[in-house]
Amino acid sequence: MQSATLLKRSINALSKQSLIIATGKRSFQSSAILRSDALSRHIDTDDNNDHTPFDFTEENMKKVDTIISKYPPKYRQSAMIPLLDLAQRQNGGWISLKAMDKVAEIIGVAPMVAYEVASFYTMFNRTKIGKNFVQVCTTTPCMLRGSTDILNACKHHLNINVGETTKDEKFTLVEVECLGACVNAPMICINDDYYEDLTPETMKNLLTQIEKSEPTKVGPQNHRKAAEGPQGKTTLLEAPTGPICREDL
Ligand code: FES
User: Fold this and answer.
1) Quick one: 132-220 is in which CATH superfamily?
2) What's the pLDDT score for residue 224?
3) What atom in ligand 1 is closest to the CA of residue 186?
4) In this predicted structure, what is the pLDDT of residue 210?
5) Candidates 136, 142, 197: which one to mutate for ligand 1, based on the most atoms within 8 Å of Cβ?
6) 211-223 average pLDDT score
7) Which residues lie closer than 8 Å to 132 by C-beta, 6 or more apart?
């Protein structure tokens, strides 16, 4: 090899090495920066500030009493999550500052404790969401079964990105970790319902049905029954002795 070429290669290698030392970055490998879709800190808005009223309805107040009665009196703070969930449901799928304050007041803890819980668990939405909260699972089993295509189908059909709400406030789209239905991957959750064994086509049909307020089929979107394998039921063939949780299984 010509000595001029060797010299040029050595200078290039040294320049790259100096760049790594100077910037502290490795130039040959990088990973994507992952950010949560959820907002973990409070920002005052017109519909969510210290003056936005919140109180449980009379009917929900009875539920509050029922929930609290499940815990020993000195552990009423254990009712935090079910009460936050109740407040979120009453508030249209998201939990406001004053709703968290109300829960904290009822169970006798500092408001900050309720803020911490509501910010930590992804089941709580700290900002307003659309009527249909579309959560697409993109964890490994779902990803291997095509969740990227499902997510893209949602983005394309709704014309929004992850973390956004449609202009008509009918849909909010988020990406979530495993929702525990991996056997029927890929799957999504809309509000309280799971839709499984999806394809981009069935995904789009499902969104269209919801847009038209038509009834949807919850669970597997193919011919699978519950979580049975493709060959059908192979074990536990005799009639169950009970307790029976679902009559249709
Ligand atoms: S990985 Fe999607 S439900 Fe478990």
Assistant:
1) Glutaredoxin (3.40.30.10)
2) 93
3) 2
4) 98
5) 142
6) 96
7) 170, 171, 172, 190, 191, 210
